[in-house]
């Protein structure tokens, strides 16, 4: 039911104490070097203040306990930047309808949650659920991508005849992101501001001395300006 302090084991890295009846984790206060911790199948009801100092932890098993408060549990684990494997299933908190996406959003370093790999689609869904405004911005920005669909612009003397693909636009700022990433790229391209570059042949521009002496007649500047979207 209880374990004495492990403070004398300053370099302890891996600890298996699963399948017991442990309810208190104060014995872990000075176990800063732990990278693997197996606490599954115990009687834990709250881990607040017991694990947040374990910044080197990479694997944490907490399944089959009595953890009920999802927010408090995840908050305790937020400082674990190296945490990659996490088990929380078979706890009351796991019955929350948004449990998995909540953990994925607030613990972005986790790659394997409840013995299942975290997918990119799940990360996008979690972002959309808990930060819809940022999700909309991310979906509308397209760096390093190319739109193959014609925007109806003229190139030289010929005009593209390929019909533009019809976009299914979101109805508001807090709605579902674009189903097709190319739609986001296309919308971004149509809203992009104009850029202008100008160049001048400085060999034909009179110097200050020439203008003072009036030895050289001033000619109109030949300025080349290029605009593109």
Automatic annotation (TrEMBL):
Source superkingdom: Eukaryota
Gene3D superfamilies tied to this protein: Ribonuclease Inhibitor (3.80.10.10)
InterPro entries, per the entry: Leu-rich_rpt (IPR001611), LRC72 (IPR042655), LRR_dom_sf (IPR032675)
PROSITE patterns recorded: LRR
Pfam families: LRR_9 (PF14580)
Protein name as annotated: LRC72 protein
Species: Origma solitaria
Lineage: Eukaryota, Metazoa, Chordata, Craniata, Vertebrata
């Amino acid at each position: 039911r209880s374990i004495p302090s492990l403070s004398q084991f300053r370099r302890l890295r891996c600890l298996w104490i699963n399948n017991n009846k442990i309810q208190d984790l104060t014995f872990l206060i000075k176990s800063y070097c732990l990278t693997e911790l197996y606490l599954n199948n115990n009687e834990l009801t709250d881990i607040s203040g017991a694990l947040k100092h374990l910044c080197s932890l990479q694997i944490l098993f907490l399944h089959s306990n009595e953890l009920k408060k999802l927010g408090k549990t995840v908050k305790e684990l937020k400082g674990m930047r190296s945490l990659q494997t996490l088990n929380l299933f078979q706890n009351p908190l796991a019955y929350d309808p948004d449990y998995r996406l909540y953990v994925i959003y607030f613990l972005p370093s986790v790659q394997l949650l409840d013995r299942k790999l975290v997918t990119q689609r799940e990360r996008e869904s979690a972002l959309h659920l808990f930060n819809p405004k940022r999700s909309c911005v991310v979906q509308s920005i397209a760096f390093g991508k190319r739109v193959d669909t014609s925007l109806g612009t003229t190139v030289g003397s010929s005009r593209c005849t390929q019909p533009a693909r019809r976009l299914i636009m979101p109805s508001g700022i807090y709605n579902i992101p674009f189903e097709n990433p190319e739609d986001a790229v296309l919308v971004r391209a149509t809203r992009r501001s104009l850029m202008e570059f100008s160049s001048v042949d400085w060999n034909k521009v009179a110097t200050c001395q020439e203008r003072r002496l009036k030895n050289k007649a001033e000619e109109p500047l030949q300025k080349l300006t290029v605009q593109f979207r």
